[in-house]
Amino acid sequence: MLSKSSRLWYRNVRRKKTIKQKRLHALQGREDKKKAGFSIYFFLDDDLSSTTYSISPRVFVASKLLSTELSGPNSKLLKIAAPPSFLAAQQSTDGFDSIWSVCIKDDDIQVERAYTPLTGVDGDGNLLFWIKKYPKGEVGRWLHSKIPGDSIEMRGPLKTWRWEEGAYDEVVMISGGTGITPFIQLFNRVILKTTPTSHTRFTLLHSSRLPEELPPPVLLDPLTRFSKANPDKFKFHVFVDDKGGSISPPHVPPLKEGRITEKDLKSCLGLEKHQNAWWTRFFGKTAPQDETPRRILFLVCGPEAMVGTIAGPYGRNLSQGPVGGILGSMGYSSDQVYKM
Ligand SMILES: Cc1cc2nc3c(=O)[nH]c(=O)nc-3n(C[C@H](O)[C@H](O)[C@H](O)COP(=O)(O)OP(=O)(O)OC[C@H]3O[C@@H](n4cnc5c(N)ncnc54)[C@H](O)[C@@H]3O)c2cc1C
């Protein structure tokens, strides 16, 4: 989910929890933690809080909420001015080279959660977030209650995953719900900007529960348009658990109903046609599925249950754990699968 160094730091901070904090921690429901997608759920010591501008990802800096917009039954788009330290450090700090997130702190109860700026720092020096509110999720509910002009404290950048130009022939991103946010950042910061000599092909398979829970048009429209204009470079597939009789909205490719399955993955990788080929029917066995070895990487981000189904559960202490689930049964190894 986050880089090893960030996880180690979280562990050190965790050790510093006071007894009072531990009691509060115990009150948080496990289900709630799962729903919010982050097992990182802790309280910071006061000495780590600061309003001075520093680029240390450990130090909170204050910034201003610029706008909020309802974008679904329980989600909002929030625009926050990037702290000046982010703007100054963008050129020199390597955290920004990666897919990165920030931790936002609920000031009232000193709980933080990580969120992904969808375009990184945009041209106007702002950070745009798509944030879901859960009935028992403290930071999401707190953020949804904020109005333009309110102060928001955040720290970052926190490296989520490092993109390496030329390292992969094929990158397949699989997301559920707000788990699409790191992939929208990857789209905006890498896929849209890759050079004509870049041969990496990208595929995004996204699933939401209902059509009205899909990310809003302002986020999906650019992906849909780019995939139509560049089908060899970027493929985009959208799933909903239940179409509810509605037709596909115009800002997405035709909706597929049901969860993402092995068949969907095979078809997006072009493996299905091999299995239906004449030699399979004639000899009764599958031909080599991938004649030219391709350097392929699967990135998975979504609710824990989905990550488990697609790629196997996380390991202990937020580690990757072995590859399991659908990708495990397809024979992919741990250097080909990354659980965000
Ligand atoms: C690196 C990272 C960055 C994040 N950034 C943000 C952010 O910026 N904003 C934010 O709000 N959250 C963020 N999160 C939190 C995270 O995305 C969500 O908490 C998590 O994805 C839950 O999403 P949801 O509730 O929207 O999913 P749901 O709406 O509950 O589910 C989405 C889909 O997942 C599929 N699914 C569910 N269960 C299964 C299963 N058992 N098998 C197969 N498929 C299943 C279904 O198709 C469903 O439609 C981030 C998480 C990570 C790891």
TrEMBL record:
Residues 57-164 form the FAD-binding FR-type domain. Keywords: FAD, Flavoprotein, Oxidoreductase. It comes from the Eukaryota. GO terms for molecular function: oxidoreductase activity. InterPro entries: CBR-like (IPR001834), Cbr1-like_FAD-bd_dom (IPR008333), FAD-bd_FR_type (IPR017927), FNR_nucleotide-bd (IPR039261), OxRdtase_FAD/NAD-bd (IPR001433), Riboflavin_synthase-like_b-brl (IPR017938). SUPFAM superfamilies: Ferredoxin reductase-like, C-terminal NADP-linked domain (SSF52343), Riboflavin synthase domain-like (SSF63380). FAD binds at residues 113, 115, 132, 139, 181. One of its GO terms (cellular component) is mitochondrion. Pfam families: FAD_binding_6 (PF00970), NAD_binding_1 (PF00175). Belongs to the flavoprotein pyridine nucleotide cytochrome reductase family. PANTHER family: CYTOCHROME C MITOCHONDRIAL IMPORT FACTOR CYC2, NADH-CYTOCHROME B5 REDUCTASE. This is FAD-binding FR-type domain-containing protein. It comes from Hebeloma cylindrosporum.
